Amino acid sequence: MSGVPGEPVLRVEGLRTVFETPRGTVTAVADMDLSVHAGETVAVVGESGSGKSAFAYSIIRLVQSPGRVAAGRVVLGGRDILPLDEDAMRDIRGREMAMVFQEPSTSLNPLMPVGAQIAESILLHEKGVTKAQARTRTLDLLRLVGIPAPERRVDEYPHQLSGGMRQRIVIAMALACRPALLLADEPTTALDVTVQAQVLDLIDGLKAELGMGVVLITHDLGLVADHAQRVAVVYAGRKVEEGPVEQVLADPTHPYTRALLACRPDPWQDVSEPLVEIPGVVPPPLALPPGCAFAPRCVRAEPACSEIRPTLDAIGPGRQVACLVASRERAAA
Ligand SMILES: Nc1ncnc2c1ncn2[C@@H]1O[C@H](COP(=O)(O)OP(=O)(O)OP(=O)(O)O)[C@@H](O)[C@H]1O
């Protein structure tokens, strides 16, 4: 990918993704902006149903019917990819951006040796590469992602590998053509805690080595602290807060971010004590209040919050928040 100097690898502007359902139009993603630079991991955090996956699928243009991207721009290396036809997109997927999904089995063909699947991706995207060269590159990739005994593993089938090894294979496939952007949608949710850390460390190492930008989709703020440089918190399809990870975690501004942080399990907490939960549930997408979608659950909500939708206001370098109360307090301070 050529890229434009100073331009982020990915720039999303005003993205809106909707699902047309028999009961009405569900807006899964609304007015989303996000930039990711080379060598940076930006985490997108929110509860289940907040639109994180719809956001990632929109970027790589894999939203399935009845869903569709209804508005916005997705600029990859300086080029808006939303108007491109499907042939051009197929060329971009895998070569310029790649995605790692939550469940490794969804990305792997159970009937094909794992090495052949990686080699196929190389042969598809790179003209002039011979089968022998693709196999050598595949073995290098297996080494890169830490697969032991790659000469033996390369000819094994997915079911012969553990879940952690399968996710490493998926990452190897995603990285086969050295994409500029990696979208990782809950890449470790299906894995044991120790394997989770290994896979995320692996993505961190490869990001530094290949100079990729990474979008890390997760509901786990613990992972954000260790693996991302910036974080965007989403609620009911909208970004409610964004900023550098250490600032947002140390000084969260939006009441939803504060509530998410308060709910993090404390490893030192007595196991007999119940975990804290955010009261209430995410409002049904067809019945969002006209104002702030978090207002019905918010401990700081004022009457105006249910009526007026807050805009995303800049509250410091690289920091934004969409909250009437927080913005007013920051302005007064
Ligand atoms: N096929 C579909 N038809 C209708 N609505 C959908 C469809 N897929 C997703 N949605 C809606 O889009 C919204 C966002 O869903 P999405 O899966 O992106 O959330 P998420 O934050 O990734 O959740 P999870 O962590 O559980 O995957 C939800 O309100 C969901 O109901």
Automatic annotation (TrEMBL):
GO terms for cellular component: plasma membrane. SMART domains: AAA. GO terms for biological process: peptide transport; transmembrane transport. It is found in: Cell inner membrane. Residues 10-261 form the ABC transporter domain. Pfam families: ABC_tran, oligo_HPY. SUPFAM superfamilies: P-loop containing nucleoside triphosphate hydrolases (SSF52540). GO terms for molecular function: ATP binding; ATP hydrolysis activity. It comes from the Bacteria. CDD domains: ABC_NikE_OppD_transporters. It is a peripheral membrane protein. Its main location: membrane. Keywords: ATP-binding, Cell membrane, Membrane, Nucleotide-binding, Transport. NCBIfam families: oligo_HPY. Belongs to the ABC transporter superfamily. This is Oligopeptide transport system ATP-binding protein.
